[in-house]
Amino acid sequence: MNEIEFGKVAIKALPSAEAGKRVTWYDTKTPKLALRVTASGFKTFYVVKRAGGEMVWLKLGTFPDMTVEQARNGALTALSAFANNENPAEVRRPRKAKPTFAELFTEYGERHGSKKKSWRTDQSNFKKHLQSLAPLKLSTIKREAVSRILSDLERAGYANATLNNVRALVSSIFGRAIEWGYATANPVVGTKTRVKVKRDRFLQSDELPRFFQAVADEANVTMRDYILLALLTGARRANLLAMCWPEINLNEAVWRIPVTKNGTPQNVTLSPEAVTILTARKEAAEKGAVFVFPGHGASGHMEEPKKGVIRIMERAGIPYGRSTPNGVTLHDLRRTLGSWQAKTGASLAIIGKSLNRQSQQATMIYARLDLDPVRQSVNTATSAMMEAAGLKPVAEVTPIREGIQHA
Fold first, then answer.
1. Range of the domain at 274
2. How far is residue 9 CA from its own chain's centroid?
3. Phi, psi of 259 (to 5 degrees)
4. Contact (Cβ atoms closer than 8 angstroms) between residue 265 and residue 258
5. Residue 369: pLDDT band with limits 50, 70, 90
6. How far apart are CA 185 and CA 139, in angstroms?
7. Both 77 and 143 in a single domain?
8. CATH code assigned at 12
9. How far apart are CA 351 and CA 355, in angstroms?
10. Distance separating alpha carbons of residues 396 and 382, to the nearest angstrom
């Protein structure tokens, strides 16, 4: 049994649980007072007491909204009720049958959301776009309220993808509410989905010189390397952030991603420029380092490169963001590699293999491809981008990580 004396500092320092698991800590000062920590970092106070032959978990509140002192007082009150042969959990059940949207979201996170790959995005969407629903009882939330939120986001200029994600989150939350007996209807039913506009934005020939110069001028070496590798590998944001040294074979110039968004592994071919960057990072890495881009958070790696991307794009004079006319996003760097592969004559199958894009029709073709034609395509596209940027071939210049030299 995990035991500590509960305190603000001590609880803040508790690590998150492993993915898909929860860890329970018990207070050494107040009997039966527990704190359950989820993989997403939720910390919830409970009184854990056997009553009537069953183990009762009486929820008190979430930290830090509920302080340690409040939790201890609540625990003592609950234990007093238990001592008088009363079960406060039974009293709460009728009230719990009609929770607020915020209360449901907390339970949704503890029981389901924290297991989702998109949980961080869900948390952000709840905080930014669903606060008008937070204090409302589930029974009072109707379709009109959800439609109003989506219409307001549309008028504010948010992308259709954002609207659809918010709509899907509310639908998923209410779907679980129905499953758990808290609701009988889903207010999202009848609201319209938005047509997702397919983006075709990538860095153009006239933008590449400014982009590479802005990257070279970036003072943060880690951010500079991350942005360059995002372009040179075409890897997804999450995979690149979690890039590990054990996954990389510099001799073979291959990065083996164990699991991608598609749920499949991927072999990423590394161009000479990418190998140059990784070799330099490997030499500078601390002994025993696991992540290529280490960070100070719970994950152990860098979490959010957005500020660095914006800084570099502003310096290059390139608009940033989906809501900005002709704006570039981090994901567009991935699209840039694929677009330049197409420009240099690569087939759709080759491009799909290099970016791990899958469709039912293409899966069998991708499976038969080895890395040699993919490598040739990636290297050709990289050379074309460097040439468009006015850079000399990699063999003739100082390594790209040290500073980009113009021809």
1. 208-396
2. 27
3. -140, 130
4. yes
5. very low
6. 9
7. no
8. 3.30.160.390
9. 6
10. 15
